[in-house]
Amino acid sequence: MARIAVCPGSFDPITYGHLDIIKRGANVFDRVYVGILNNSSKSPLFTVEERIELIKEVTKEIPNVEVDAFSGLLVDYAREKKANVILRGLRAVTDFEYEMQITSMNRVLEEDIETFFMMTNNQYSFLSSSIVKEVAKYKGDISELVPTTVKNALISKYK
Questions:
Q1: Right CATH number for 4-125 from 3.30.70.100, 3.40.50.620, 3.40.50.300, 3.90.1530.10?
Q2: What's this model's pTM, rounded to 2 decimal places?
Q3: Active site includes 71?
Q4: Could you tell me if 110 and 75 are in contact, meaning their C-beta atoms sit under 8 angstroms apart?
Q5: Active-site residue 129, yes or no?
């Protein structure tokens, strides 16, 4: 049986922290679907289509990664992709409580899908899309936080 994982998130935008989890997940699982949550209650900077293109660009060298978008329940998306794992990154202990709640709810909805947590590389433990956007908005240097493609897209958005 193929080991298929879904790595969900808003990825607005994708950062080196996200990429770290995706790359490491691709080394563990046969296929990793990067599922961009299309959350209508949020006002993202990038459209879903823009996020798909940015993530495809920065993951193009990882052959077992596919990029997709979904709305609704994560477990429904995972079932659709025939995934048996949800892959989540943890930055710090503060992430754990929130993630534990989500994992517990997902387990109630679909007990056959496991959640795997990966600790983000220490150099990215402070990093979030919100922080990157804030720094980019005020023209700070984000070249150590996101791939060049993403940096250029952010610069373009904030012109």
A1: 3.40.50.620
A2: 0.93
A3: no
A4: yes
A5: yes
